Amino acid sequence: MKILAVETATLTASCAVVENGRVLGELTTSHAKTHSQQLVPMIQSLLELLDLKANQIDLYAASIGPGSFTGLRIGIVTVKGMAYALKKPVCGIPTLDALAYSVNDFKGVVCPMMDARNNQVYTAIYRKNHGEFRRVSDYFGIHVTELAGRLDAFGEEVLLLGDGAPLHHETMQGLIRQPVLQADKALFLPRAACTALLAEKQAQEGSLSSPYELEPFYLRKSQAERMKELGASQV
């Protein structure tokens, strides 16, 4: 099964194709152009490099969030449009899952952190050891001090990754009694290849969707929605 996935939850955009657990190709860019300008050309370039046609892709996948509201919508709409036109199934993968999946085996707990500003992060807690990958917490939009308390309760080494890791690593070290490690910079941003590999696992479990069902996963409302509600409450 060939799977094409896109990752647009952050300022970096990427797309990848995997087959039978192997990454056939991946393109990533952090160029100043918006995702709406670069995503479709990136997909076209990747398919050309792999000598593939869009109808040879069996499953289309997208990172569904949390992350940039606009970026996520662009990625999801692109995948939905291609899958609908080609009558293919889709799969949505939470961005935090894809981030955590990029880690090699780690004996403690893995904590991807996406910066949500004001000392808050989008996060969840995972284990990845001896080939086993599982999430052991809910998804949170949480203040870093509260997150530190939850991580400290595990009583194990902690591995931080994601763009929130370098911002809050020192704080976490001061609040958690066990060693707190920071992953390599290469793991600060989610990758489409990890999204595709997780989509392959879901396909093997029979957990796929129609294009109509693919929706973004937000942990909090957008700034525009919050401002609208604030204005309504003041009327």
TrEMBL record:
Cleaved signal peptide residues: none
Gene Ontology process terms (BP): tRNA threonylcarbamoyladenosine modification
Domain of life assignment: Bacteria
Pfam families: TsaD
Domain Gcp-like: 32-225
GO cellular component: cytosol
Family annotation (NCBIfam families): T6A_YeaZ
Protein name: tRNA threonylcarbamoyladenosine biosynthesis protein TsaB
Highest classification ranks of the organism: Bacteria, Bacillati, Bacillota, Clostridia, Eubacteriales
